[in-house]
Design brief:
This protein is of the alpha/beta class and 307 residues long. The protein has 13 helices and seven strands. The chain folds into two domains: 2-89 and 204-293, Vaccinia Virus protein VP39 (Rossmann fold, 3-Layer(aba) Sandwich), CATH 3.40.50.150; 100-194, no CATH class.
Length: 307
């Protein structure tokens, strides 16, 4: 594992959470988005996170460089790639707190098991509305996702990047997911509602290069044309406008012609996002999932951008 230790201006250096240590033990992003967008045999820059997306892209026959600014995160992703067991990060422990409140909202394990075994989207929405979308659950989610409470756990810039009334928007995204994807075939639904970790079943393919570095720092050191695709997760959430411009310039400089860029955001789509694939992401959480090619405009005429 390569480590670079230059100063970085991204707030990701300190993590999204106020506490340190491992942030994410699971990946809350559907790699099918990336797999459909990236041609086989590509050289891919990928934010490492928990490592699952990098593993899926590598297993599809691509050469992946997985980069993360957190030493704990990059070491965990590397261990998972070597066959190590999943561990809970801060995100999983916070989600577990919410799940412990589920019985007080009228949720039982029997109801969840029935819901997660449904495969007809119309039946899923009907069951959700009838059995699980209770007034107590709505009030609990809206309270837990209120800015004042979120700031107790998350750093200020990340909370500020979330859309207004994030609780109701989060609930809308879940319902949108139930109306779009079969629960029975969606491991992300199981992960989110029960906390049961997703195991990595991707076959071993090309080796992944793991690097501990800030994304912009690393890309600024790369030769022009180094990568055919960039998988940026939600690196744009909570960073300054200056850092976002710096990262966009670094991506442009390190990109091969017509390179693919995939990025996500918890925010709501704006005029800068022409084609939003959030509804296709089975992880259910995102407001924006952008896929575009550098040098081209995305669907709807908007320029390719980093969310």
């Amino acid at each position: 594992m390569l480590q670079l230790h230059e100063p970085a201006e991204s707030v990701w250096r300190h993590g999204a959470f106020r506490a340190g240590s491992l942030m994410f033990g699971q990946t809350y992003e559907d790699p099918e988005i990336e797999l459909q967008a990236i041609p086989c045999g590509s050289r891919v820059f990928c934010i490492a996170g928990a490592g699952t997306t990098a593993q899926a892209i590598s297993a599809a026959g691509n050469r992946v460089t997985a980069v993360d600014i957190s030493p704990a995160q990059i070491e965990y992703a590397q261990a998972r790639n070597a066959g190590g067991p999943p561990r809970d990060g801060i995100a999983e422990r916070l989600l577990a707190v919410g799940r412990r409140l589920a019985p007080f909202c009228g949720w039982t394990r029997q109801k969840l098991d029935h819901f997660l075994n449904l495969s007809c989207c119309s039946e899923q929405v009907a069951y959700w509305d009838r059995e699980l979308n209770t007034a107590a659950w709505r009030a609990t989610v809206d309270g837990l996702l209120a800015p004042r409470l979120l700031r107790l756990c998350y750093r200020g810039p990340f909370v500020s990047a979330l859309p207004a009334e994030f609780g109701p928007k989060f609930r809308q995204r879940l319902r949108r997911g139930w109306a779009t994807h079969s629960n029975r075939d969606n491991p992300f639904a199981v992960l989110l509602l029960t906390g049961e970790p997703m195991m990595c079943h991707h076959k071993k393919a090309l080796p992944i290069s793991f690097v501990c570095a800030d994304a912009a720092d690393f890309l600024e050191r790369c030769n022009p044309g180094s990568f055919d695709a960039f998988v940026l997760s939600n690196i744009g959430d909570g960073v300054s406008y200056e850092y976002r411009r710096r990262l966009a310039a670094a991506v442009q400089d390190a990109a091969a012609p017509n390179a693919v860029v995939v990025s996500r955001s918890f925010g709501e789509p704006n005029a800068g996002v022409g084609s939003n694939l959030a509804i296709k992401d089975r992880s259910l959480l995102w407001g924006v999932v952008s896929v575009c090619r550098l040098g081209e405009t995305s669907e709807g005429g908007a320029p390719c951008c980093i969310c």
